[in-house]
Structures are given as C-alpha cells and as structure tokens.
Design a protein that fits this description.
The protein is α/β, with parallel strands linked by helices. It has one domain (3-122): Rossmann fold (3-Layer(aba) Sandwich). Helix content is 45%, strand content 18%. It has a four-stranded parallel beta sheet with strand order 3-2-1-4, sandwiched between helices. Helix 3 (65-75) links the parallel strand 2 (51-58) and strand 3. The chain is globular. The two termini are 24 Å apart. 26% of the residues are buried.
Length: 130
C-alpha cells in the first residue's frame, strides 16, 4: 500500500467515529506532514459530510511570521484560520511555543465547536512533540 493510500485510510478510520456536520480542525504548520493530513482530511471528511477547517498558529517569533502563516493558508483547499499567539518563554523556546500552540488550538476548537483537532507528525518527530 503506498503512503498516500495508507494516510487516507488512517484518516478515514479516525473520522468515521464523528457525526455528519461535526467540525474537525486540522493544525497546519506548512510542513509536508500537516499539509498531507489537511488534504487527506478534506477528501475523507467530504465523504462523511464533516466540516474540516485548517488552523495555522502564528507564533510571531520571526519578522515574516504573518506572511508565512498566510502562505500556508493559501496552500490549502479548505477554509483556514490564522491564530496569533504571544509566546511567553518560561521553559525554553520550543516548549513554550508548543504550549502556546496547543492553547491556541484548544481555544480555536472551543470557538468553532470542533469535536476534534488533528495533528500531523512524521516518524522522525521527537517523541516529546508527538
């Protein structure tokens, strides 16, 4: 089974437990893993009449972060939101940014009545981030 078929099959199995009309968010960083997940969720979600919405978190840690977030949004074929966060560095940049990202995704899920948030990771991602 090729990787795309396997991905769509796994996404379909995850989405089948939801009801028609449910809102599912997909966290999209712009990396290949999250873009592939967003596309698979769109294709499989349409079959199940789910509302798939992408969410890109702008950590505002780089000068061009807003433009980068907009670039990610423009790559998607699903509605997408950009959530800006202010990262309070308390225990290292990566951990603090991750915490801010998850808080933003949780807030966005509540605001959109989402029943789930999908996150894409590759097998090479560090265990602490999965």
């Amino acid at each position: 089974m090729d990787a795309l078929v396997a991905l769509r099959s796994a996404v379909r199995a995850s989405l089948e437990k939801f009801s028609p009309g449910d809102v599912i968010l997909v966290a999209v960083s712009g990396g290949a893993d999250s873009l592939a997940l967003a596309e698979a969720a769109k294709l499989e979600g349409e079959k199940l009449t789910l509302r798939i919405i992408g969410v890109t978190v702008d950590h505002q840690l780089q000068n061009n972060s807003a433009a980068q977030a907009e670039k990610v949004v423009n790559q998607l074929s699903i509605p997408c939101l950009i959530e800006k966060v202010s990262v309070q560095i308390t225990d290292g940049l990566e951990a603090s940014a991750r915490r801010a990202r998850y808080e933003a995704l949780d807030k966005c899920a509540k605001e959109n009545n989402a029943v789930a948030v999908l996150l894409g990771h590759t097998k090479d991602d560090q265990a602490e981030t999965v």
